[in-house]
Amino acid sequence: MNFIEIDGTSDEKIEKLEKLGIENEVFAKGVEELKEVVKNIRLFGVPNSNFKVDLTIARGLDYYTGTVYETFLNDFREVRKCMFWW
Predict the structure, then answer these.
(1) Average pLDDT of each block of 10 consecutive residues along the chain (86 residues)?
(2) Of 1, 16, 37, 65, which residue is least crowded by CB atoms under 10 Å?
């Protein structure tokens, strides 16, 4: 549970996760998925200031099978909040 307290930029958080030395297949897959999400966000041209890695998000651990991310659309308040996972 030490990873919940990790702070820094998105890249720093991912780097610190990798340095924890956790040898667990599910953990390693999660870190790789997180890196992929960040890479794809940047490919879409989203500035670093418009997204962040939040290691405290946890949703329905019994049925979500991958990375969870939330989107808040400031210009479309009627959408309010969308949650996605893969």
Answers:
(1) 86 94 90 92 92 80 68 71 51
(2) 1
Residue 34 has a CB neighbour count (10 Å cut-off) of 18
Q: What is the predicted pLDDT for the residue at 82?
A: 52
H or E element that contains 26: helix 25-43
Write down the pLDDT at residue 86.
Answer: 46
Encoded tokens for 61: 């651990």
The size of the chain, in residues, is: 86
String of DSSP letters for 31-47:
HHHHHHHHHHHHHTT--
Please report the pLDDT score of residue 3 as a whole number.
Answer: 76
Residue 25 DSSP code: H
The domains of the chain are located at: 2-85
What is the distance between the alpha carbons of residues 77 and 57, in angstroms, rounded to a whole number? Answer: 21
Q: Is 53 exposed, middle or buried (0-12, 13-18, 19+ CB in 10 A)?
A: buried
